[in-house]
Amino acid sequence: MIIVHKYGGTSVATTEKIMNIAKYLGRVKDAGNDVVVVVSAMGKATDALIKLAHEITENPDSREMDRLMSTGEQQTISLLSIALKTLGYDAISLTGAQAGIKTIGHYMKNRIVDIDAESIKKHLDSGKIVVVAGFQGVNEVGDVTTLGRGGSDTSAVALASALKGKCEIYTDVDGIYSIDPRVYSDAKKLPFISYDEMMELAYLGAGVMEPRAVELGGKYGVEIYVGKSLGEKNGTIITSIEKIKENKKMEQKVITGVSINENTIMVNVEEIPTNAQNVYEIFEKAEKSGINVDMISQNDVSSHHGSFAFTCPKTDMAALEKIGEKIEAKYENTSFIINPYVTKVSIVGIGLISNVGVASKMFKILAENDISFHQISTSEISISLIVDEVMGKRVAELFAKEFDL
Amino acid sequence: MIIVHKYGGTSVATTEKIMNIAKYLGRVKDAGNDVVVVVSAMGKATDALIKLAHEITENPDSREMDRLMSTGEQQTISLLSIALKTLGYDAISLTGAQAGIKTIGHYMKNRIVDIDAESIKKHLDSGKIVVVAGFQGVNEVGDVTTLGRGGSDTSAVALASALKGKCEIYTDVDGIYSIDPRVYSDAKKLPFISYDEMMELAYLGAGVMEPRAVELGGKYGVEIYVGKSLGEKNGTIITSIEKIKENKKMEQKVITGVSINENTIMVNVEEIPTNAQNVYEIFEKAEKSGINVDMISQNDVSSHHGSFAFTCPKTDMAALEKIGEKIEAKYENTSFIINPYVTKVSIVGIGLISNVGVASKMFKILAENDISFHQISTSEISISLIVDEVMGKRVAELFAKEFDL
């Protein structure tokens, strides 16, 4: 069996931690597995490199940033290979390019288009543990490219797919929880979660896994284990809903998880002249300013004026304020109201597709507890609410209890 | 004109220094030159990486060390390219591999066998300043390799050779002196020095330039400027003896320089049974222990027992002591005496070839000042003496005065 391990920056932050990982990988190899391991840069190494570039300019060249940022992972692969060899295991480090990871797109946010796994297979066949630099590949002109922050998860899943192996992501959390344990102390760790549910949780702000990695896993059927301990396997397996159903140990719940995203602000645009062009203008400005618009809803429509609301991350506040000033200057009666005191609470579950009772149950809880919400949006397997910031944790707890998470 | 600049670790230690270099390179480019720049890792970055590896093991794998150490230069090329672009100059960074630097040999001490300069030429033709990672290349299996410490000098000279350009080495000394100014305050900076003389000075411990770089310059006739200031050109030009003779501004002296090498220990092996095998045994052991044996001399020969002496760097002391113990254990009457309190003083000059009076003048000075020496060795253009450590500076000063350096 080929197993692709992945260790993030915290896990490889010191040479002592790297040595511990080497020992663990050795045991996995001794158990008869073919081992590939993908690693990130040590600790905060990438942030330190970005800081250096920003000492020179606010807007460093993207191609050069990719080269700069790719060096952190190259240091980790060397050190881990040195550690493995010191323990007596044959090992070899490969850059993204050497591992055959071909990418396309803009520098700093490339995506993997192809993996030529022949080199890795050759090294595995000769008994080596193969250590691959995460977060990077090579583009059509031979330049090193990076996959965006968190891209090492994607590297690992893509390699597991190309090698038809399993993927194990070791991180600083011990698995996927139905709800953040810091919010709800009775939170249960999930032994299994489906790709679709995990993707919703990832996008909704649970932050454990890079959503693109989960998407890739789903697309190519790569089983992904997420956990912390280097010993006992007590984390979470991300797999297909069919595999989960086959597994009789687990009853499928309607709701798998609740997530809270406090990095949310809501904007109400009121009394804007009703005209598709005007709405487009706002979102075009937002896009150009790099604002990541999330939930959009139309609140109120009259014949001549309308209102609508949208949410975006708190980090986009400054850009948002500039747009607000321009809009209010242009339209006499229009208000552009930014509310940073909100939180997004979402429930996620495959069961939502077929279970129409969930939404009504949710509204019943809100009504019984006299909790109002500002906005709602739904997808096939999730429902998200914008509530006052102070109510976020309470709402999540109520949902967690009601849906037995 | 194509000019290849080289900046060492001290010159690129901070982003502020990198920005200053970028401004200078911009002026050189604006003056109508094609500019290639070779850089080292920032400050002590390479040492920090080596320290990390040594936290894991005393003997890290060489291939992995090459990858690890090569990342420092890759960071500098990115940052310098970002700085150049910020100033409005088109620039591109290239790793050793991308710059076409092919190497062969053992990891950690590869040598350049070929440079495919097509990629650099293409970028120069499109008006770019080309920023190349020093100290590294790529071997026949596609692995990154390094050229040994100080290898960036070699990278720069090799590129200048391949591009038929000039080479300018910017370092933390402002040129080549006839004698270390810290030893002799009246030391004169040389406007010119020949490849051969510079090579002797480099090997003899002057330490300004990597000897292999000078050798390469001599072999391919690359003019090398060595200096400090980013403005006025007041450093030293290393070139052929013919070019120096053509230049009427300078009278060729018999002696060009004096060097002091305090990193020297002398070993006297006394009363060893006279037998080529026994001598070979010692040097074989020394070679296997990685000891860099320098001067060797036979002191005294009788029919059955002989004595000889050799020198090596102080850093080899521990390995040397082990060999001494073995030799003394094996041969009953043999003494293996290590003397760390010595210094090597050397005089270098093309004039030595044809000027037989130099050696006698040297001995006269020593005699007049009552200075004894332990060992002497000569090459075509140099004479080296081993003297007591406390006398080293005095001897160098006497020579400097006598030969008007």
From TrEMBL, chains A, B:
Entry's Gene Ontology BP terms: homoserine biosynthetic process; lysine biosynthetic process via diaminopimelate
Pathway involvement of the protein, from the record: Amino-acid biosynthesis; L-methionine biosynthesis via de novo pathway; L-homoserine from L-aspartate: step 1/3; Amino-acid biosynthesis; L-threonine biosynthesis; L-threonine from L-aspartate: step 1/5; Amino-acid biosynthesis; L-lysine biosynthesis via DAP pathway; (S)-tetrahydrodipicolinate from L-aspartate: step 1/4
EC number: 2.7.2.4
Catalytic activity line of the entry: L-aspartate + ATP = 4-phospho-L-aspartate + ADP
PROSITE patterns: ACT, ASPARTOKINASE
Keyword rRNA processing annotated: no
Pfam families on file: AA_kinase (PF00696), ACT_9 (PF22468)
InterPro entries in the record: AceGlu_kinase-like_sf (IPR036393), ACT-like_dom_sf (IPR045865), ACT_Aspartokinase (IPR054352), ACT_dom (IPR002912), AKii-LysC-BS (IPR041740), Asp/Glu/Uridylate_kinase (IPR001048), Asp_kin_monofn (IPR005260), Asp_kinase (IPR001341)
Binding residues annotated for ATP, in chain numbering: K6, Y7, G8, G9, T171, D172, Y177, R182
Highest taxon of source: Bacteria
PANTHER family per record: ASPARTATE KINASE (PTHR21499), ASPARTOKINASE 2 (PTHR21499:SF68)
NCBIfam families the record matches: asp_kinases, PRK06635.1-2, PRK06635.1-4
Record family assignment: Belongs to the aspartokinase family.
Protein name per Swiss-Prot or TrEMBL: Aspartokinase
Source species: Leptotrichia rugosa
